[in-house]
UniProtKB/TrEMBL annotation:
Highest taxon listed in the record's lineage: Eukaryota
Family assignment from sequence similarity: Belongs to the GatB/GatE family. GatB subfamily.
Organism, scientific name: Pleurotus ostreatus (Oyster mushroom)
Protein name according to UniProt: Glutamyl-tRNA(Gln) amidotransferase subunit B, mitochondrial
Residue intervals of the Asn/Gln amidotransferase domain: 372-543
GO CC list: glutamyl-tRNA(Gln) amidotransferase complex; mitochondrion
Keyword check for Aminoacyl-tRNA synthetase: no
Upper taxonomic lineage: Eukaryota, Fungi, Dikarya, Basidiomycota, Agaricomycotina
Gene Ontology terms for molecular function: ATP binding; glutaminyl-tRNA synthase (glutamine-hydrolyzing) activity
Keyword annotations of the record: ATP-binding, Ligase, Mitochondrion, Nucleotide-binding, Protein biosynthesis
Subunit note: Subunit of the heterotrimeric GatCAB amidotransferase (AdT) complex, composed of A, B and C subunits.
Length: 546
């Protein structure tokens, strides 16, 4: 059987393979002076498809409800490639500037473990579907990390140990789900660079819609390889630490492993090549097996699967639907909106929380993310084209401080929130135009979150009596009367002065600080509807007899 996305009539793809040197001048790290650290990472990312790599659609969340006879390795069942997994992995390969192979094949990797019903995993050992590429770390030095290859493979089932009954339970739901293994070259030089690599890869996977990339939920897992050598000498022996499920643990595992290698080398011994685990209790690595006990995987081509052909036209079609990649978004946001890099990072982190739809489908409004939300507000001049564009810093401030602040107080996420960008835009315009005060703006936002309704912020501001109080002069120059029953600010200031004779005397005797007390009184009376600066000006003018 030949698995063909479409029959291949072209030769090799023209995807450029950029060459660059992996040689970096050694920079001394104070933590381990006189040593160079080399790190390479294998990332396993679950592909966000509705179907497994070779079998059934994903249904049911209960254990063992999403299992086809093929996943359970029933005799006579055959694999059928899910082309959506290939398409999503192709997006990743394009984003990483990887060379997508026109022909690739699948192999069986044999080992015996209860979470692998067939006794082998289907992977791409001999001929992976993408080779080469790179990811540039977002540091000042823009460190490039070369990608060695990307291969498609099946996930295993999940084994869950029940300590009470001392037995292991198997959940086959994960068995056969599509994974990409993204293998880096050994180009990282510190745990921090390793962390940055994984985080950058996570946001790239999410940006192209290929994977949730969520380490806590297991949709992204890392094996890290590390070795230690004297600068200028050949690399040391690598040890591989398996199955790390958080960036924090990965950094601890690396630091502990580096220290262990240095201790061994300092005592004039040599580091044996090992596969190791990481204990979340001791924050140290421990030996799983040595090179000598490494399993013989007896790789062999999977004869039930033929060659995977990917044509240049198919790649081009996918290339045309590629979204903006995180690096470009980062620098564009900084330039286009003159935002501080720190604020851009906050916005990008918020954006990364968005839902990733299955199979690259266009998601609903909640999956649009924080960047789109921010840009909608900045770019949509709802008040008419002649109005000034909204100040991006003000917009960002309302999103990351006020909106997200209030949402987290309510234990809600930005992704699940229901305030349309046009509403926040309207609210910001009212505050910036002094129609309501900033304090009232915050109360209005709180009200909207507490009482979802169809009424717009403007309607609510009137209904809730939040329109800012104006001074006599502002009322007469605007030519519109204040809402019925509203006193103007001048009248309220006058009333406060008459209620605070002792303070007035003190002020007039030269104690100017007492003015703040009278301002406070007005602010309290107006319940945040007055602008403190305007109140101060009016009071000062009255008390100074101007
Ligand atoms: N001297 C070294 N120090 C640190 N990392 C290294 C060194 N040499 C190679 N590596 C890294 O080790 C990793 C090897 O991964 P690869 O998938 O090719 O093989 P593997 O780990 O032997 O196989 P498996 O996929 O079965 O675990 C790569 O990320 C590579 O960059
Ligand atoms: Mg590997
Ligand atoms: Mg490995």
């Amino acid at each position: 059987m030949v698995l063909c996305l479409r029959s291949c009539s072209h030769g090799l793809f023209s995807t450029s393979r950029r060459c660059f040197s992996s040689v970096r001048s050694h920079q001394e790290d104070k933590r381990w002076p006189g040593w160079q650290i080399i790190i390479g990472i294998e990332v396993h990312a679950q592909i966000k498809s509705r179907r497994k790599l070779f079998s059934v659609p994903l249904t049911g969340n209960l254990p063992n409800t999403c299992v086809s006879p093929f996943d359970a390795a029933f005799p006579g069942t055959l694999p059928r490639l899910n082309v959506q997994c290939v398409a999503l992995a192709t997006r990743v390969a394009l984003a990483l500037n990887s060379n997508i192979q026109s022909r690739s094949t699948f192999d069986r990797k044999h080992y015996f473990y209860p979470d692998l019903p067939a006794g082998y995993q289907i992977t791409q050992h001999y001929s992976p579907f993408a080779i080469g590429g790179r990811l540039v770390l977002p540091t000042e030095a823009a460190v490039p990390v070369r990608i060695k290859q990307i291969q498609l493979e099946q996930d295993t089932a999940k084994s869950i140990f029940d300590p009470r009954r001392r037995e292991t339970l198997i959940d086959l739901n994960r068995a056969g789900m599509g994974l990409m293994e993204i293998v880096s070259e050994p180009d990282m030089r510190s745990p921090e660079e390793a962390a940055l690599y994984v985080r950058s890869l996570q946001s790239l996977l999410r940006a192209v819609g290929a994977s949730d990339g969520n380490m806590e939920q297991g949709s992204l897992r890392c094996d890290v390889n590390v070795s230690v050598n004297r600068p200028g000498l050949p690399p040391g022996t690598r040890c591989e630490i398996k199955n790390l499920n958080s960036v924090k643990f990965m950094m601890s595992a690396l630091s502990s492993e580096i220290r262990r290698h240095i201790d061994i080398l300092d005592s004039s011994s040599s580091v044996p090549q090992e596969t190791r685990g990481f204990s979340e209790q001791t924050f140290e690595t421990f030996k799983l097996r040595s090179k000598e006990d490494a399993p013989d995987y007896r790789y062999m081509p999977d004869m039930n699967l033929g060659t995977l052909h990917i044509t240049e036209t198919q790649i081009q079609n996918i290339r045309e639907t590629m979204p903006e990649l995180p690096d470009i978004t980062r620098s564009r946001l900084q330039k286009q909106y003159s935002l501080h890099p720190r604020d851009v990072e906050i916005l990008l982190a918020l954006d990364a929380e968005k839902d990733i739809p299955f199979d690259g489908e266009t998601g609903g409004p909640s999956s649009a993310g924080a960047v789109r939300y921010f840009e909608n507000i900045c770019q949509d001049h709802g008040q008419g084209a002649k109005e000034k564009p909204r100040d991006p810093k003000v917009v960002l401030n309302w999103i990351i401080h006020e909106l997200v602040g209030q949402l987290s107080a309510r234990h809600e996420t930005f992704t699940a929130q229901r305030v349309p960008s046009s509403w926040l835009a309207e609210l910001i315009d009212m505050v910036q135009g002094n129609i309501i005060t900033r304090t009232s703006g915050k109360s209005l936002l709180r009200h909207i979150l507490h009482n979802p309704s169809e009424e717009s912020p403007k309607q609510l501001a009137h209904k809730l009596d939040l329109i800012a109080l104006r001074t006599e002069d502002q009322v007469s120059s605007a030519g519109t009367a204040p809402p019925a029953g509203d006193m103007d600010l001048t009248a309220i200031c006058r009333a406060s002065i008459s209620q605070m004779p002792a303070e007035v005397v003190a002020y007039q005797a030269g104690n100017v600080n007492v003015l703040n007390k009278i301002v406070g009184h007005v602010m309290k009376t107006t319940r945040g509807r007055a602008n403190a600066l305007a109140v101060k000006t009016v009071l000062q003018a009255m008390l100074d007899g101007n």
